[in-house]
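User: For this week's homework, look closely at the record that follows, marking any run of repeated tokens, and judge whether sequence predicts the tokens.
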Amino acid sequence: MKYTRVRSLKFNAVMNMILMSSSFIFPLITVPYVSRVLDPSGMGAVAFAQSIISYFSLAALLGISTYGVRACAQVRDDPKELSRTVEELLIILAASTTLTFAAYLLALQFVPRLAGDKPLFLIFGTALWLASFGVEWFYQAIEQYGYITIRSIAVKLIGLILMFAFVHQASDYHVYGMIVVFTGYGANILNMLRLRAFITLMPFKELNIRRHFKPMASFLVSSVSSGMYAQADMVLLGFLATNHVVGIYQLVAKIKTMLVMAINSVVNVMLPRLSYYARNSQEKYHDLLVKNIDFVLLFASAGIACAALCPDAIIGILGGSQYRSAVLPLLCILPALLFVSLNTVLSQYLISSGHERQYAIVNFAGLVSSIIYCLILIPPLGATGAAISCSLCELTALLIRCWYARDFITTIRKDIRILPAPTSAITATAVILLIRQAWWPAQPLLQIITTGTGFTILYITLLLLLKEKTITTMIHRIQTR
């Protein structure tokens, strides 16, 4: 096995921020173009197909995308055991993906909503195999964030070129679907090709596949439930409304996803290290989780405030006049930014501390609540109902997670300052709204730039006045360099 040096959390965080920034920047380039070329109906068709395949992928992955990170991170210092673990998980994935793909083909044949555009759904069927054998969990476990970042950006650049080269009219939505699959999963091919440099295949008789079944059970329920409730709004909207309505909402969902990815850019790199610290250093484990919560409060408050200040400009730039009705759904989905990010941190605690059962229960409850909210709110409210359902679902999941993590929350409560970030964000927002009464640029891009700049200056100033720990530490480090 090739030796790999485990980088510092700072390096991993920087790499993941670059990766998440690319996931933020590339849509800013592609979404305005594709939204105008394909119109809401074409975008809705692709978004619905993407949501459906994500459901089948969850079943095929069996929770290994999460379980694999922990299982590999715990044995990463033992090359032989790491190789055995990876090989065992790949065999399980091969069996589950074969069965799931067969079920997917049957669904295309007998479900009218899917059979109506079978070519598009067959295109997305390839993503099922690419998702299962991407072994992203392995590279996260050994903290290869430099490699993950470089290859992901390279694939996104190729996808960007392909999109401008081949997507020119509304009928090209099948081509766009192919590009979406390539951009989302093409890097997984490189993952498998590179895997042999890190692991050594072992004889089948030395493997013990059954040892993973019991610990995977909780991850299976939790991962499938979590993924399903994250996509339930889009899937149910696809069955309950037209492609046009789905197209309106998919733009809102994309904006939410971009903002969540930006907020979670640092948080997501912590799980492998948390799993490691959970076994080796409780003090570092405690400190790292506290930093995660502080970071989420800081950046989620800013993201919600900035988006709420100029929703018309954001929709106008990303979608154009055809998507004007997406403004209200965007405002309704913004609270989910904070709830999703805090859910991510508390999920990391439950996973890394061995509370898989509670983690599974929370995600299952989230799925059930999501379905209930969507069935109640989507028929009368359409895309707005889906957005409200998303926020309510994430809030429900957060409250249940807080209940299960109440002992841990009690121990860290004294180390977390909850009020500075939201207080500063609300105050800065109020000041910007007052300024807007006197002057406000007409151009949407200038509105966003002006709002972002003014808000950032006010927000940081207020945080420093309130002596918010994360910001003061960052400023001190910059000053001492």
Summary: The first helix runs from residue 9 to 61. The CA atoms of residues 293 and 380 lie 36 Å apart. The chain has 22 helices and no strands. The mean pLDDT is 84.
